[in-house]
Write a structure and sequence with these properties.
The chain has helices at residues 25-34, 45-48, 51-55, 62-77, 82-92, 96-110, 115-120, 128-140, 143-198, 206-239, 243-255, 259-280, 285-294, 299-313, 318-323, 330-342, 345-401; strands at 2-9, 15-22, 38-44. By secondary structure, it is mainly alpha-helical. The protein has three domains: 2-48, Ubiquitin-like (UB roll) (Roll), CATH 3.10.20; 59-154, Up-down Bundle (Receptor-associated Protein); 159-402, Up-down Bundle (Receptor-associated Protein). The longest helix is centred in the C-terminal third of the chain and has 57 residues, at 345-401.
Length: 402
């Protein structure tokens, strides 16, 4: 049977759409008529994933993909076939796009293709790591176990991203409020207060004159400054699409104190998790290294993995090949070396990934804890300067009156 996506009219002439399974398009039309629907358009989902429609395929977020993989692994472990598991997942899919995606994969399975081949038609939804792990699970006959490992990896990745965003949320809110307060004072409060001193013949203090100049500058040209900031941001984002510039930018970030170490551990954690899953699934080491390289965000680290892959191809051990670059944390290199010596590289890589993720969470918590009072002090400093600039002329006038 093949999955078809349809648009039809019901008995009230209201348009409806969905997915239906049938042997042919004519059979699908007959089934719709039996349900009291009048077909407008019927198209095979397998045909829609070609050309431009395939490129527009929606990308699954980490939460959806993690939940889908966990349910998939559970269904497979209960004894269902891949086709039966996909049918169950399609029935309970919460969104129309996800239902169409799963129906399309199932349609390819029913046509005789492997699960890996079916997933390859949806590269936006399923990452290279995901597809490589599925291929290894199919080859080894342990697809349920591999899917469970994938679900664990996706859960950890999503949890790390969520905790990081939650930790940064409060500092971002504080910074936004501080900026709004300072801009409000400079554009509304300061002009009304200092206008009293401008008509007097008294020479204003330097701090007050600087405050008046800054306030006028912000009122007259603030819009231009905002446009310049937005333009610089967009130009930088566009420039970073060029590989050479992105490589230099990433190298600069990795050399930055505190931030560079944090980014290095983040990519090392992703790399270790990927290599652990693929190595444990029986994927050849060179193929696992290529998949691990694709999950690394910083190009200097990805380049180091590529060079290490060439050295492994020449017969060098993985720990020596990665250690020669000097870009990965020594802890990870030692764990890989221990894994190679004991034959438990997948287990030790997984342990290294867990420990590095714990370190990342601790560092993120510590950095945000320090950032919050620093932002408050910075905002307080700006407000203090404004208050001093306004109070100095008043104090001098009171002094002269005495």
């Amino acid at each position: 049977m093949t999955a078809f996506r349809y648009r039809a009219l019901d008995t009230s002439s209201r348009e409806t759409n969905g997915v239906i399974e049938a042997d042919t398009r004519r059979a699908a039309s007959s089934l719709l008529r039996e349900r009291g629907l009048y077909p407008i358009d019927i198209a095979g989902i397998g045909q829609e994933v070609t050309g431009q429609r395939r490129r527009r395929q929606r990308k699954l977020n980490e939460a959806d993909l993690s939940l889908l993989t966990r349910q998939w692994a559970t269904l497979l472990a209960s004894g269902l076939t891949v086709e039966q598991a996909l049918a169950a997942l399609t029935d309970q899919a919460g969104s129309q796009s996800l239902r169409q995606l799963l129906a399309g994969v199932r349609s390819e399975i029913l046509a005789g293709y492997s699960l890996r081949t079916a997933l390859d038609l949806y590269p936006q939804a399923f990452t290279p790591l995901y597809r490589a792990s599925v291929a290894a699970g199919e080859k080894s006959g342990e697809l349920a176990r591999v899917m469970g490992q994938l679900a664990d990896y996706l859960d950890r990745s999503y949890a790390l991203r969520t905790r990081t965003l939650q930790a940064l949320l409060y500092p971002v809110i504080v910074a936004g409020v501080a900026l709004a307060v300072v801009v409000g004072l400079m554009t509304f409060v300061v002009p009304q207060v200092v206008s009293v001193f401008q008509h007097s013949k008294q020479a204003l203090p330097l701090l007050t004159r600087a405050l008046i100049f800054s306030s006028r500058l912000l009122l007259d040209w603030g819009w231009l400054f905002a446009l310049l900031v937005a333009g610089v941001f967009l130009a930088g984002h566009s420039a970073l699409r060029k590989t050479a510039l992105k490589r230099r930018w990433d190298a600069l970030l990795l050399r930055t104190p505190l931030l560079g170490h944090h980014l290095r551990i983040l990519d090392a954690t992703r790399f270790a998790s990927t290599l652990s899953i693929l190595a444990g699934s029986g994927v050849p080491l060179l193929a696992a290294l290529e998949a691990g390289r694709q999950v690394i965000s910083r190009l200097p680290l990805a380049d180091a993995v590529g060079i290490a892959g060439e050295r492994v191809r020449e017969g060098q051990s993985l720990s020596r090949a990665l250690g020669a670059s000097g870009t990965f944390p020594p802890f990870l290199i030692h764990m890989i070396a221990n894994g190679e010596a004991t034959g438990r590289i997948d287990e030790l890589l997984d342990r290294a990934a867990h420990l590095q993720q714990a370190e990342l969470e601790n560092r993120t918590t510590a950095l945000t804890t320090l950032l919050e009072p620093l932002l408050l002090l910075l905002m307080g400093g700006f407000v203090l300067l404004i208050v001093l600039a306004v109070m100095q002329p008043i104090i001098e006038i009171n002094t002269l009156m005495r």
